[in-house]
Amino acid sequence: MNKxxxxxxxxxxxxxxxxxxxxxxxxxxxxxxxxxxxxxxxxAVPVRQECIGCGGCFLTCPEPGxxxxxxxxx
Amino acid sequence: MEYTNRILLKGNEAVIYGALLAGCECFFGYPITPAxxxxxxxxxxxxxxxxxxxxxxxxxxxxxxxxxxxxxxxxAMTASSGLGIxxxxxxxxxxxxxxxxxxVVDIMRAGPGLGxxxxxxxxxxxxxxxxxxxxxxxxxLSPASAQEMCDFPLLAFELAEKYRIVVYLLTDGVIGQTxxxxxxxxxxxxxxxxxxxxxxxxxxxTNLISSIYLEHDDLEALNKKLQSKYAExxxxxxxxxxxxxxxxxxxLVGYGISGRxxxxxxxxxxxxxxKAGLLRPITLWPFPVDAIRALGQAKEFIAVEMSDxxxxxxxKLAINCDRPVHLINRMGGNITTIDEIVKRVTEIVGxxxx
Amino acid sequence: xxEEKVIFxxxxxxxxxxxxxxxxxxxxxxxxxxxxxxxxxxxxxEAIADFGIQDKTIIIAPVGCAVFSYYxxxxxxxSAPHGRAPAVGTGLARANPDNLVISYQGDGDLAxxxxxxxxxxxxxxxxxxxxxxxxxxxxMTGGQMAPTTxxxxxxxxTPLGRSVSSEGYPLKVSETVAALDAPVYVExxxxxxxxxxxxxxLAIRKALTNSIERKGFSLVELLSGCPVNLKMNxxxxxxxxxxQMSRYxxxxxxxxxADSRDPINRPVGIYQPEAVRxxxxxxxxxxxxxxxxxxxxxxxxxxxxxxxxxxGGQGVLSxxxxxxxxxxxxxxxxxxxxxxxxxxxxxxxxxxxxxxxxPIGSPVVDKECNLLLxxxxxxxxxxxxxxxxxGILLYDESNGKCPDEVLERVIYTLPxxxxxKQLGDLKYANSMMLGAVAVMMCDLFLxxxxxxxxxxxxxxxxxxxxxxxxxxxxxxxKAFYIGKAKAKRIRN
Lengths: 74, 354, 492
Prior knowledge:
Helix content of chain C: 25-40%
Order of helices and strands of chain B: EHEHEHEHEEHEHEHEEHEEHEEHEHEH
Oligomer: heterotrimer
Number of helices of chain B: 12
Shape of chain C: elongated
Strand content of chain B: 15-25%
Structural class of chain B: alpha/beta
Radius of gyration of chain B: 20 Å
CATH class of the largest domain in chain C: Alpha Beta
Largest interface: B-C, 88 and 74 residues
Number of strands of chain C: 17
CATH class of the largest domain in chain B: Alpha Beta
Distance between the termini of chain C: 121 Å
CATH topology of the largest domain in chain B: Rossmann fold
Strand order of the largest sheet of chain C: 3-2-4-5-9-8-10
CATH superfamily of the largest domain in chain B: Thiamin diphosphate (ThDP)-binding fold, Pyr/PP domains
Largest sheet of chain B: 8 strands, mixed
């Protein structure tokens, strides 16, 4: 049986740094970084491999394409 | 069953017959005297032809419903009288900025304020000069009979769609309320086509109707585009009826009921040996300046209108104030009489000769 | 071998690039960080893409922060004046029932300047999906009080906090709309925690499903964060929505009756010329005369102006209408102008009728009148001065004898009302008066052939007006001939 694995990708320049995804993630995958993006704000970054693919971060993010959740099948 | 195209209709009824025969699909309106028969007739006739009649919750809603239907590419109309038109001005400004075609009928009553329900022609400025915000114009047709009320909706829709502009039928309570013999025009041979820009399933979904331009240059570009459209309309769409103006020393200018009174007055004045003529503007915007300027022989002009003298400004502008322009007017719901016109013109001519 | 699959990502309901957005940024929306509009936009975009309805969806952009929503959604867009979206949406939905119309509105737009429009559209059950963003504040104009601002909440226009004694209480939109009979679905959600956003996602899909199935009016209210104007971080914002706002605006389904409603059925327009003529043109009830026919009598060569007067309810207007109809049937230009408004709603009634071979100048008969038909004495006194010196007076004597002071005129009289009552109904008085007109015309003006034609055209006119009511036609014709028999000239 394939075990499903997930990963979350952040498009740095589409993030406005509101932190909604950070507080939404049940596995604390995301954290605010310290570098600034093109908009001049610090953006969220994945810091752990624990993504369960729930999509909470995507749903709570107000930007269309800042977050993408990907399923990896092995 | 055999049918006839000859029918007795009030102006207010005729405009609905004309609109339906011109393929109008939607009517949205709110009751107001002396325009209510328009809504009554629409309520009776639109559903008969499977078309949309809806009594809106207010005048503002009515014009915005027209906006929706017009954006969908449907021939749509509303009708009201001065007070209601005041309320619709916001929507008409939007329609103008969005370049949506629509038909608005204004059966003028006496103002200001609640005024009364008698006839007046005092919406001229708010309709012809653009009563809403922004630099825009609407084409304004002025019917002077039930027949014209019936005939003009087709012209109005054609102009509205050709130029993507709001077209008014502007007339007074007398024309709205008078019943006359009307010869009904033929219906359109087929349903009017949905324009390419419409928000309709049959058109690309990238179509957008909006009047907001955040960038100042973009909004200026829209304004310039509108102004060049208006220049084209000024050049091509002036219309008027002239009666015995060829050799006239004195030219009466009047629209709506005033135009008809003037026609009778011209005959009486001619019988008295005064060379009078009538120029009845059919388009109030664009004002028929070319026809007025062509009357080089005329020594004096007289604006006859049921207001404080609103159209008179356009007569003066048309001739660059190079000859006298007099005003014969009544207000408050009073109708100018032919006698009054004849008497005043005779006085004016007499004063000049003396 | 590994396979990658996007399970949550940029929706096809958005344009791939936001070309309409001015400035260099073409992939982001213009909303502030953490704004609820962005969350809602994504839910709507995802739904219209998943449902495959982009080609018939029209999203109405309101005035407020979402005024630029058409930068983003890959479907039809229109911007409406402040608060008028439900009216614009009504026009769109009525003009073509295939349109799927989304009215996207904020609290100032929907609940303040446009509150009447939303209630009326809801009450008509328009086929609209309304998404109502309630963030308790005006965002775009810079943080002023909204009708949904909470008591005590500080805004630019309530610097000391909203006072319920001055500004009233937060307006409960979902509760109000749900109280109406027509709406099929009303739910209040919150764009706060992921769990609540998931609920909102379902609500939005339900509202759109109702539209697709033409079930009518659905409203989803979304409590939504405005972290910049409310000066809150993401955590505090969610807490504000879930603890403070939700206390005044309880979440939940307020109404869900779509299953019990039939789809809205709108009429289909008729445009075939033959069908349009059949439905709109009047029926020809009598053979009548040809278009070139002209009555030869001299009287008809110049314009004839007629005044009719009486009291409201006496049938003055319909008497005038009958005369005008007779004129129409004999190819005259005719005009008929009633008094309208308060005068008609009590007191005297009058109307003017003009018959002419030429275009009619004034339809107002206020002087030089050729014929005055007066149905009572006060009306006679009021309008006698309009009668030309050689004009003819026709008077209904039922209410008293013709006053002495008019006796120098040419007068015909008839107790029309009394005779009509004898015939069974006062409304026959009109036809009797027309019988009197016939007598007068035959006595004074008509050529031999026109005398008979007058009776014919009267009968045609009665048919024209009442062709669907045989007994009415019969009785009016009877009344006409009674009038003809009883009318008399007053010899003076």
